[in-house]
Each structure stands twice: as C-alpha cells, then as structure tokens.
Amino acid sequence: MFLDASGHYLVIVLSAGNAKSISYFGTYTVNDADSSMTMRVDASSRLIADEPDAKRLVNFSGGEMTQETSPSTGRRNSIKVTWKRSD
C-alpha cells in the first residue's frame, strides 16, 4: 500500500494458492473522531462495485497501520489487515 499526503493511495496484493491477487487505487480520507479511513476505489483489477467507498476502522501504532472492517458492513466476519511502514 502506498499513501501520499495529498490523499491518494495504491494497493497491490500478490497472493498464492487459491487466493486471487488484486490491485486498486483511488483517494482516501481519515476521520480522527471515529478512528476511521474511507477509501474511494477509482479503479481495480477486480470488480468492487458493491463497495466503492470502503470505510475501515484504523489504528496507528509506531510504524504500523491496522485496518479492520466495521461490524456494520454486513459481513459475517471482520477483515483485519496490518500494514508496516517501509523506511
């Protein structure tokens, strides 16, 4: 994941086995009041039409950012991803 200071991002996830790789990009905003990040998907290697604005709970700790789906997304299980800052 690459985030820039002007609110743009790019995500590339390479997977093995049965999992599918994906890449997508767009813009993001952070809401400090409710510790969330909303990511607008402008384009993707896979169809993400059901969620063009993905809101995630976010936590920053040291050089890590953890994103988690909110229980209100309607998913059975929450998805949690931890990104580590590259120096």
Tell me about this structure.
The chain has strands spanning 2-3, 8-13, 22-31, 36-44, 53-61, 64-69, 80-84. With 87 residues, the chain is mostly beta strands. It has one domain. A 7-stranded antiparallel sheet has the order 1-2-3-4-5-6-7, with no helix packed on it. The protein is globular, with a radius of gyration of 13 Å. The mean pLDDT is 86.
Topology diagram in text:
Layout: E1 2-3, E2 8-13, E3 22-31, E4 36-44, E5 53-61, E6 64-69, E7 80-84
Antiparallel strand pairs: 1-2, 2-3, 3-4, 4-5, 5-6, 6-7
Quick description:
With 87 residues, the chain is an all-beta fold. Helix content is 0%, strand content 54%.
Characteristics:
single chain; 7 strands; mainly beta; 54% strand; 87 residues
What is the CA-CA span between the terminal residues?
Answer: 13 Å
Describe the largest sheet.
7 strands, antiparallel
Strand line-up across the major sheet: 1-2-3-4-5-6-7
| Count of individual domains | 1
Flag low-confidence runs.
Answer: none
Number of strands: 7
Shape: globular
Q: Specify the helix fraction band.
A: under 10%
Count of alpha and pi helical runs: 0
Question: Into which percentage range does the β-strand content fall?
Answer: over 45%
Overall pLDDT, averaged? Answer: 86
Order of helices and strands: EEEEEEE
Radius of gyration: 13 Å
Helix- and strand-based class? mainly beta
